[in-house]
Design a protein that fits this description.
This protein has about 150 residues and is of the alpha+beta class. The longest helix is centred in the middle third of the chain and has 14 residues, at about 75-85. It has helices at about 30-45, 50-60, 75-85, 110-120, 130-140, and strands spanning about 10-15, 25-30, 65-70. It has a single domain (about 10-140), classed as GIY-YIG endonuclease (3-Layer(aba) Sandwich), CATH 3.40.1440.
Length: about 150
Amino acid sequence: MTDCGKGFKAFVYAIRHELTGKVYVGCTKDVERRIKEHLRLLKANNHPIKQMQDDYNRYGGEYSYYILFNAYAAYDAFLMERHFMTLLDSRNPQNGYNSQDNSNNFSLSQFRKKSATKLLKGEESDNRRNKRKRTDMVDRIGCCAGS
């Protein structure tokens, strides 16, 4: 994981519990540090996400980790984090650990709205080469909405 950050400013990642299949989607500038932090908090019985901590305590700590999106701009990663939360249905307590309250308290300029729309649709993105990888990772997680 140490070389995955080369040239990128932010990452969208997923942590999947192997037994429950539940997923947490997050966004960070340092994937390795953030995943280690999740594990440290779980091992210390101090993770802020109660259901994630409960599953760790009940079923053990077998997790898979995925980088879903590499972004050159942190803002793009933020938008894609929301996109993957929806795609993986990780706000639904039966499927994931993300909070259901993820309201966006910001406004976008027309330019950013247009860019964000294209990004979410996979059009004209600097990250085109990652489109196939994102699909592969989502397929590997195997808990998309509607499945």
